[in-house]
Design brief:
By secondary structure, this protein is an alpha/beta fold. The protein has 20 helices and 32 strands. The structure holds adenosine-5'-triphosphate and magnesium ion (MG).
């Protein structure tokens, strides 16, 4: 069970919802106090802090000027260009005001959308905060999405302005943006009239379209002393739209509010991350993802911390770079993803001992399942608690986590611990929405109202919001996460994969994650993807693509066949022959998105001879080639 202290804390957050959240709301500045804490008159829509007026930019920047103007607010580090630049809160405020003034000069007003398609540079953070300041709704699209994906998002959000840059950089190579942007504007039905270009000088051939494309440096120089008043927004006005990663289908435009989000982030910074004002937080995500919104930009700044904005990979110039950053900036909180840790695990372990990382209190990981061996490896290497926590673009902040700021509970490897305060999170049986018992696999759901910070609706589509998230069960309105979970006898949760990642073998429903864990139990398997492939006899058959640790073991066709048999026997032993993969293919890498999510749908499509779909966020195209080659080789 969760510790007694945390249990009582969580229990109160549900029983005395309004009292609990009114207290947490005291962590942020309200220009006008709220009336009703929660309006749940039209379920499942929840309105938090009704009538209250506040502003995300004010809370992240202005509020700190009186006490910490000369403290570093943002440190931009690029191992791609070799640049490193720190901005104090005073300097950050000046840059945000300049950007806000430029936006206003281009006609951006409160409620207008601004699409931000940027690499990991400081101007991206300025643009996000500038939108928040003037009450414009930002929609950040991950830099690297192809023109088509960008156009879909443009047409959904219909921005007045797009802010972009000439190029991103990845592993030492320039990733030009401009031609993608031009192409997306041609494809879009509702393109913005203006494009603000932050020119890094990487793409020297870049051509500006007169009248449409504007150079940021030129406009900025006209607004150096700008003081742009903060737009005080009602707590439930939209702050941003962020499209989900699109792992499982058409991206959904998650709409976030202002006051609930600021409050939830402030509460999470205190109770979960334990990030104190004056300290440094290092989050290795990208501003295009929800983790970047909440824990590179808003969360740490609201808490008065120094935040690190890092452009680069975890292994360049070498696998010690992140630990060097931790050392140099005395980071106390670090947030990364399991995929990055797996990358580091393949490198020389000496890099973990090279730097002094004693400032770190915790390492938080999220985004995909953290397997037990990886969890154990990094926790033992760092000698600090490594906290796996589980959440979604939709929720904006963690749903399952250890909450060390309230009580230090023991970590179980492979488990994201307990429901976070504010979430009435339970496990529901698929058949009738009744609650599952201990050790019983069921759907992770949340009894509404969702706590502050979670999505208010889907942009422009209340109906889709209700239909998508609250209609899984006919008997009961419950928010469905579309993930399987299980709770052990001690009350610790485990995530078992997505509800649509189910393989139906001759009427038996098997989760891909269960089979993957069984395959991974083979000592020579580092990582694996299992997909269900259509089979005339059995309906579907699991097929495994396994990354081997020692490739010499699968060097010859005979060795491969023997190895395949061994892996199959491992699955037989752990799950039974029904779950045995029809084939086990050996590869050296798996296709993933740049945020580390396995592209299972694409692998499955290839295995069934279909088109793999939109692959623009793929991390390593070579990995997909290997899948093709493995399939072709049979
Ligand atoms: P889409 O909803 O568009 O298909 P997505 O679900 O991949 O995309 P995100 O919101 O970025 O987009 O990811 C949330 C999902 O990631 C969760 O629903 C879960 O499947 C997975 N996830 C996140 N954190 C964890 C974790 N700690 N353990 C296991 N799975 C996790
Ligand atoms: Mg999702």
């Amino acid at each position: 069970m969760a510790g007694e202290i945390y249990r009582a804390f969580h229990e109160r957050s549900i029983r005395d919802r309004e009292g609990f959240w009114a207290e947490q709301a005291g962590l942020i500045h309200w220009q006008k106090p709220f009336g009703k804490v929660l309006d749940f008159g039209r379920p499942p829509f929840a309105k938090w802090f009704v009538g209250g007026e506040t502003n995300l930019c004010y809370n992240a920047v202005d509020r700190h000027l009186a006490t910490r103007a000369d403290q570093k607010a943002l440190v931009y580090i690029s191992t791609e260009t070799g640049e490193e630049k720190a901005y104090t809160y005073r300097e950050l405020a000046a840059e945000v005001n300049r950007m806000a003034a430029v936006m206003q000069s281009l006609g951006v007003a409160r409620g207008d959308r601004v699409l931000i398609y940027m690499p990991m540079i400081a101007e991206a953070a300025f643009a996000i905060l500038a939108c928040a300041r003037i009450g414009a709704i930002h929609s950040v699209v991950f830099g690297g999405f192809a023109a088509g994906s960008l156009a879909t998002r443009i047409d959904d959000a219909r921005p007045t302005l797009m802010v972009t840059s000439d190029a991103g950089m990845r592993a030492g190579k320039a990733v030009p943006y401009k031609h993608l942007v031009d192409e997306s504007l041609r494809l879009a039905r509702f393109p913005p009239g203006k494009v603000l270009m932050v020119n890094r000088g990487i793409d020297r051939e870049m051509q500006l379209v007169p009248g449409r494309d504007l150079d940021y440096a030129t406009l900025r120089s006209r607004h150096l002393d700008a003081q742009v008043p903060v737009a005080w927004l009602e707590s439930n006005e939209p702050s941003y739209i962020l499209y989900t990663s699109g792992t499982t289908g058409k991206p959904k435009g998650v709409q976030r509010d202002v006051g609930g989000y600021a409050t939830a982030l402030a509460a999470s910074m205190k109770h979960i991350y334990m990030g104190n004002a004056g300290e440094t937080m290092f989050t290795t995500s990208d501003i295009g993802w929800v983790v970047g919104h909440s824990y590179i930009i808003y969360g740490p700044l609201i808490a008065g911390m120094t935040t690190i904005l890092y452009e680069g990979t975890p292994i360049r110039p070498d696998a010690g770079i992140w630990w060097k950053i931790v050392q140099d900036h005395r980071a106390t909180v670090m947030f990364s993803a399991p995929t990055a840790i797996r990358v580091l695990k393949k490198q020389d372990p000496a890099f973990l001992k090279k730097y002094d990382v004693s400032s770190l209190r915790h390492l938080f990981l999220a985004g995909e399942p953290l397997d037990e061996p990886t969890h154990r490896w990094i926790a033992e290497a760092l000698g600090i608690p490594v906290i796996d926590h589980y959440w979604q673009t939709e929720t904006g902040w963690p749903m399952l986590s250890a909450v060390p700021g309230v009580e230090k509970t023991p970590i179980k490897y492979g488990s994201p611990s307990f429901p976070v305060f504010g979430y009435d999170l339970r496990l529901f049986r698929e058949a009738d929405a009744s609650e599952a018992g201990a050790d019983e696999k069921a759907v992770v759901g949340v009894v509404p109202p969702l706590p502050p910070g979670c999505l208010a609706t889907l942009w422009g589509d209340d109906e889709r919001f209700v239909k998508t998230y609250f209609s899984t069960f006919s008997t009961r309105q419950v928010y469905s996460s579309f993930d399987w979970g299980i709770r052990d006898q001690d009350g610790y949760f485990f995530i078992l994969g997505r509800t649509d990642d189910v393989i139906n073998v001759a009427g038996h429903r098997l989760g891909t994650r269960e089979i993957e864990e069984a395959v991974q139990a083979h000592p020579n398997v580092a990582e694996v993807a299992v997909v269900g492939v259509a089979d005339p006899l059995k309906g579907q058959l699991p097929v495994a693509f396994a990354v081997v640790k020692d490739v010499s073991a699968v060097a010859s066709p005979e060795a491969r066949a023997a190895h395949e048999k061994e892996v199959m026997a491992t699955v037989d032993r752990l799950l039974g022959a029904i779950a045995r993969p029809g084939r086990v293919h050996f590869v050296t890498a798996l296709p993933k998105t740049r945020s580390g999510k396995l592209l299972r749908r694409s692998i499955q499509a290839l295995a069934e001879g279909r088109d793999p779909g939109d692959l623009t966020t793929i991390e390593d195209p070579g990995a997909l080639e290997q899948i093709k080659a493995a399939l072709g080789a049979r």
